[in-house]
Amino acid sequence: MFLSKSIKLFLFSLLLAGSVSAQAQTNFLKARHEQALSMAQGMAKNAQGNDDKAALLDIQASALDSLGQSAQALKLADQALGLASAEQKESSIVTKSAILFSLGRAREALLLLTPVLNGARQAAATVPAAERAATLAGYLPGFTVAVFASVELENWKDALAYLADAESPPEDPDFYPYRSLLYRYIMARANDVALANPALEKRAADDAQNKQSHYGALLRMWQGDDTAPEIARLLAEKSGDEQQDAFAESLFYTGAYARYVKHDSVSARRSLQKLNQLAPYGSVEWVHARRVLN
Fold first, then answer.
1. Count of domains observed in the chain
2. Can you give the residue range of the structural domain that contains 289?
3. Who's near 53: CB < 8 A, 6+ residues apart?
4. Among 10, 115, 183, 188, which is least packed, fewest CB within 10 Å?
5. pLDDT in tens, 204-232
6. Is residue 214 part of a domain?
7. Cα(197)–Cα(163) distance, rounded to whole angstroms?
8. Any domain includes 169
9. What is the DSSP letter of 251?
10. Is 292 inside any structural domain?
11. Does some domain include residue 242?
């Protein structure tokens, strides 16, 4: 029987929901952030120096933000900034910018982040080309916030520029196929081939062809392939918070493909509904989806 793309997307979301419901009694991501909050609160009681206190406040703020308590998180982030030395302050700025993004204050997040990221770019420009990625990798969380904030402001050129400078530490090689997926999403939103980044374009094509992860399958979906069964199989092979996080990514990018490539708002909203049921605490895709898949 021939199925339309929208029906396939709907069936795929139901398939995901079945896997999610099997572990619905345990929200692994929520538990992880609650544990981080509890540990940081305990360690803060014995913290000595201001930088240690600021770092632990940042951890608490980030955990509270991930748990949906962003207003309270912002107060702790401001306390951290008040304590932090110049060296620690950059980390505290990134934490606060992420919270501002969660609160829907993308412009303020970028205003706060821009000096830090410009400094990272300047530092990367002074090292040998082989060391550039490693220099930028330390700022990955900040570049990630900047990408999504720029997307929400529909500043596609800046979003792509931040994405091009988003580099990953060696222990997280999966970031690059994820970056390719995010690139496809931004280009679909921008709908302007003149903005294409040749290096990111080539990497996205290579990742679609060669990656056997759920990122590769999602990239092939963005090329028009029917990879729903493959994505479901790959997600079923995962467990715990890793599976929940991968479900969140898959639901968001499936919904974004439906809305911005297939112009199927019904399927996009279904993906958002499934995301809300999944409740992937701390997922930037979940925060963003509630603004762009409605």
1. 1
2. 1-26+174-294
3. 44, 47, 80, 83
4. 115
5. 999 999 999 999 999 999 999 999 999 99
6. yes
7. 10
8. no
9. H
10. yes
11. yes
